[in-house]
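Example (one chain per record):
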Amino acid sequence: MRAVVTCECCGNRQAVARQIQRAEIFFVVCHSCESVLRVEVTDEELRAAQATPRTRPATRV
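Predicted structure:
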């Protein structure tokens, strides 16, 4: 699973650079305001992400 984290201080959205394969808690630093963000991934969120069909971006011809 991949995740996008939104900073509560400045609203900046950023992608987590690594795969998330199990429920865990980790910290990232906001690229905009340098606040420390606590990210908590639950088993329920992982199951929901796995149940959601992936779509591929449209390719240009």
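Caption: Residues 43-51 form the longest helix (9 residues).
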